[in-house]
Amino acid sequence: xxxxxxxxxxxxxxxxxxxxxxxxxxxxxxxxxxxxxxxxxxxxxxxxxxxxxxxxxxxxxxxxxxxxxxxxxxxxxxxxxxxxxxxxxxxxxxxxxxxxxxxxxxxxxxxxxxxxxxxxxxxxxxxxxxxxxxxxxxxxxxxxxxxxxxxxxxxxxxxxxx
Length: 162
Prior knowledge:
Blueprint: E1 2-3, H1 7-39, H2 47-88, E2 92-107, E3 113-121, E4 124-131, E5 144-150, E6 153-159
Antiparallel strand pairs: 1-6, 2-3, 2-5, 3-4, 5-6
Helix pairs in contact: 1-2
């Protein structure tokens, strides 16, 4: 059985979240400190130019902070939080059947990006979810598999020949 979640991966995501959060805050603080230092060099002759420089520097450092927080920190933090919850939950269910993974992915607000998957067991179809970053690990559509799921998220799979 191929496990999709591991403690090491969760720790890596936590480190990535911590690192990117620290870098984001550091860049913002550095930008604001540079703005404060530049204020000491304002003279009547260069006031207009320094104003635009300080506004530009504050804007760039603010946008860098926002982009790092939204594009790196938030997804890594959500991924680590999701993995911790999945690994801590012991209620695991098994399903066996033909696997299908929907093509589109969507982001759960303040959480991870998921793709919908289904396992068809004869007449019954079980709807599951898979972390979009882990969906590439699954076998192709139509493959007969046995999957383990926690909270309706696929956590492990095994290709079966049935």
